[in-house]
Amino acid sequence: MRLFDFALAPNPRRVRMFLAEKSVEIPLVQINTRERAQFDESFVAINPLSMVPVLELDDGTCIAESVAICRYIEELHPEPPLMGTDAKDKAIVEMWNRRVEFMGYAPASEVVRNALPMFEDRGLSGMPGGVPQIPALVERGKQSLGRFFALLHRQLADNSFVAGEAFTIADITAFVTIEFAKRADVEVPERGTENVVRWHAEIASRPSAAA
Ligand SMILES: N[C@@H](CCC(=O)N[C@@H](CS)C(=O)NCC(=O)O)C(=O)O
Question: pTM value?
Fold first, then answer.
């Protein structure tokens, strides 16, 4: 098994954190998306969508999509559970992970990819022909992120972690989202989001945060 990764990209980081929490080690292969390695013929054969991460199994099967890779690892290595324990718990973890992806990660990506000069003509992932940036999406993304931080603050008022009392994949997704948004100088506001600040410091102190 090997994981096609890029050390500087947020989605592969989600998978690396997940693996670190499980103490699972998988050989990493770097695909430098800043140098367009995702569009090399050899990688397109692995993922026609030209995105990392991808988990290649020993039988040659290639699994893309961060959550799909985590699901596979969770099935192979159930302890500690990071995607819920029973039917209700699993559904709640998935609910929160999807909320974080759609309401946090997507706007963070909208801001970063439409604001940073390094993404000029790379407004969307995996597009070999290039996609122009749309500056208006930066402001809209920032407003969405403000709503996301408020949502997290409310959720973390009564819960230790994003999906309840256990650390899960939803914490990983939310943590990586917040770190990703910082690239466009979007920070969790100091006032009115104290629960997020408390939770973020806890997640940042876990060894997996360095993955
Ligand atoms: N939905 C995919 C998204 C993967 C993705 O967007 N990967 C980015 C790196 S974080 C990428 O490979 N971008 C290629 C590019 O910028 O062209 C997942 O969850 O893994």
Answer: 0.98
Of all residues in the chain, the percent with pLDDT exceeding 90 is: 99
> Ligand 1 center to residue 157 CA distance, Å?
32
Q: How confident is the model over 125-134, as a mean pLDDT? A: 95
3-state secondary structure the chain: CEEEECCCCHHHHHHHHHHHHHCCCCCEEECCHHHCHHHCHHHHCCCCCCCCCEEECCCCCEEECHHHHHHHHHHHCCCCCCCCCCHHHHHHHHHHHHHHHHHHHHHHHHHHHHHCHHHCCECCCCCCCCECCCCHHHHHHHHHHHHHHHHHHHHCCCCCECCECCCCHHHHHHHHHHHHHHHHCCCCCCCCCHHHHHHHHHHHCCHHHHC
Q: Can you tell me which atom of ligand 1 is nearest the CA of 67?
A: 19
Q: Which of 38, 47, 51, 105 to mutate to test the pocket of ligand 1 (most atoms within 8 A of CB)?
A: 51
Can you tell me the mean pLDDT for 128-142?
96
- C-beta 11 within 6 A of ligand 1: yes
Domains contained in the chain, CATH given: 2-76 (3.40.30.10), 87-210 (1.20.1050.10)
Substitution candidate for ligand 1 out of 17, 29, 52, 65 with most atoms within 8 A of CB:
52
